Amino acid sequence: MSKLFGYDLTVEYRAGKLNTVADALSRRDEEAAVLALSGPLFTDFDTLCAELQDDVAARNLRHQLAIGTAPDGWQLVDGLLLYKGRVWVPETSRLWL
Q1: What SS3 class is residue 96?
Q2: ∠ Cα 70 61 43 (to 5°)
Q3: Which residue from 3, 21, 49, 52 could staple onto 58, CB 3.0 to 4.6 Å apart?
Q4: Range of the domain at 25
Q5: Backbone angles phi, psi at 4, to 5 degrees
Q6: Dist. CA 94–CA 78, nearest whole Å
Q7: Is the pLDDT of residue 36 over 70?
Q8: pLDDT over 90 (residue 65)
Q9: pLDDT at 26 over 90
Q10: Which residues make Cβ contacts (< 8 Å) with residue 58, sequence separation at least 6?
Q11: What does the pLDDT read at residue 96?
Q12: How many separate domains does the chain show?
C-alpha cells in the first residue's frame, strides 16, 4: 500500500452489475474475513517523525508554524511536515539510503 502513495489515483466502486470484469480482489470470502485482521504498517513515517525531532531545519519550520510565520504551503500533520500536501523529507534523512 505504501508504494501507491507516489501515484495520483482514484478508486471507484462499481456495483455488481456494472463490474463485469471482477477479479479475485473484488470478491469476498466471508469465512477468511472473519478470521484475519490486517492493516498497513508505515514504519518509514515513524522513522521520519523520529528524525524530524532532531533535525535543525525541521525544528525551525515547526517553530515558524507554531507562531504563524511559516512560508505558505507548509503544514504540520501528525508529526510530519508537509509542503503543499506532500511529506517533506530532509536531505540528511536515513530514508534516502
Answers
A1: helix
A2: 130
A3: 52
A4: 2-96
A5: -80, -15
A6: 20
A7: no
A8: yes
A9: no
A10: 52, 81, 88, 90
A11: 59
A12: 1
The full length of the chain comes to 97
Closest CA to 52 of 42, 62, 43: 62
Interatomic CA distance for residues 44 and 49, integer angstroms = 9
Look at the block and give the residue holding cell 532532531: 54
Mean pLDDT along residues 28-51: 69
pTM of the entire predicted model: 0.51
SS3 of 14-75 = CCCCCCCCCCHHHCCCHHHHHHCCCCCCCHHHHHHHHHHHHCHHHHHHHHHHHHCCCCCCEE
In contact, 70 and 83? CB cutoff 8 Å: no
Query: Could you give the 3-state DSSP secondary structure of residue 84?
Result: coil
Residue pointed to by grid coordinates 480482489: 25
Amino acid 48 reads: L
